[in-house]
Amino acid sequence: MAKFDAKSFNERAFGRYMSAIPNVRMNKLKESRAIVSDARLRDTFKNNTQTGSVYAIIPYFGLIGGTAQNYDGVESVEPERTDTYEQGVFTFGRMNGWTEADFSYDVTGGVDFMANVRSQIQTYWNEVNQDVLIAILDGIFKMGETGTGKVKAANAAFVKRHTYDISDSSNATAMTEAMRVGETTLNSAIQQACGDHKSRFSLVICHSVVSTNLENLNLLGYLKYTDKDGVQRDLSMGTWNGKLVVIDDSMPTFDIPTAYGKTSDTTLEDGKTYYTKSGSGANTKYTAVETPDVADIGNYYEVTASDTGYTSYILGEGAISLEDVGAKVPYEMVRDAKLHGGEDTLISRERYAVSVAGVSYTKAVQATNSPTNAELSNGLNWSLVENGDGTDRKAINDKAVPIARIKSRG
């Protein structure tokens, strides 16, 4: 095995060693078929069949359709034409390094800190890539205002239809069990999103508050695996209605107003949301003011108490295509013999190509050759796949996008 020593470190041998370690978590994600490989990405970014190295627009074939015509030996067939759509796909790269001083080795009696680093790299990159996935999903559900004309309307329709909101955030009501996920929540959410295509969904990503609620209802069963030493370990994964569940506390949360009061402001506060009140009793409703006017501030209300809402994502088969396109030097060791008496730094790099089923990455707001998580979360960078016709641009049917989300209070 390659040693963590700058003089003897062999990055190729180390890379082979790391590849040989089973990535149980990623294997489970691939078993769900929500995360898949894609030959198009491999050909575009890895096999160099095209000039694109960080971003490309590739064909996305539309479905055949039309009304079947009567075959009676009299009428002539009138063939339909299929649209050819275009999809933006991209690569992202991430890197990090870990340094250990020679002196630390000396004063601890030879404890190999770098071996500890090696044992955690795979878990670290799993978490990094999971954060990238969540950023992508966050951005997709912010694309309601992206595009123009029919495409903008289609993007907004996708966000609405593929969001199953049981958080009841529009009214100032006390929390009820109906606002938490339950026995029918998942099935209802995927039916609303994709109708008779709901069977494609296979993966749920949720916060631990949501998973704990499911566990309390006996709706969640945890998965375990046995490592090479025969020790059984918790995967922090489960199943819900037959769908694989990934638990991640970095999932998006949002505030749900539960109490309102008359604002005491005399001038408008930047970034603050003001509300108007209508109805009374159980029918009381507070509506956010889109364009506050200081002349009406005496009639405005503001939030005085709130609960936390949780977003859960549901992915179907082939929702995310992920292809490892590699870095020139994925692992290397750098030694500085002078600094602090001598230090070794292990540097690790990864690059992946990504496409999202039915959704195009537009690269509208991206500063460098690799998008940051903040840029991936920007709705301006996402739009439903469209036909590219400048005179009558149209998007695909959002029913073909196997992605949905649930908004709940737990």
Tags for this entry?
410 residues; 18 strands; alpha+beta
Quick description:
With 410 residues, this protein is an alpha+beta fold. The protein is built from nine helices and 18 strands.
Structural account:
By secondary structure, this protein is of the alpha+beta class. 23% of the residues lie in helices and 31% in strands. It contains nine helices and 18 strands. Strands 4, 5, 6, 7, 8, 9, 12 and 18 form an eight-stranded mixed β-sheet that branches. Strands 1, 2, 3, 13, 14 and 15 form a six-stranded mixed β-sheet that branches. Strands 10-11 form a two-stranded antiparallel sheet.
How are the elements arranged and paired?
Blueprint: H1 11-20, H2 24-31, E1 35-36, H3 39-46, E2 55-61, E3 84-101, H4 102-107, H5 113-140, H6 149-161, E4 163-165, H7 185-194, E5 201-206, H8 208-216, E6 221-226, E7 232-240, E8 243-247, E9 253-262, E10 275-278, E11 285-288, E12 301-316, E13 320-324, E14 331-336, E15 343-356, E16 359-361, H9 373-376, E17 382-384, E18 403-408
Parallel strand pairs: 1-13, 4-18, 5-8
Antiparallel strand pairs: 2-3, 3-15, 5-12, 6-7, 7-8, 9-12, 10-11, 12-18, 13-15, 14-15, 16-17
H/E element order: HHEHEEHHHEHEHEEEEEEEEEEEHEE
Structural class: alpha+beta
How much of the polypeptide forms β-strand, as a percent range?
25-35%
Helicity range of the residues?
10-25%
Q: Largest sheet at a glance? A: 8 strands, mixed
Name the average pLDDT. Answer: 85
- Total number of strands: 18
Radius of gyration: 26 Å
What does the overall shape look like? globular
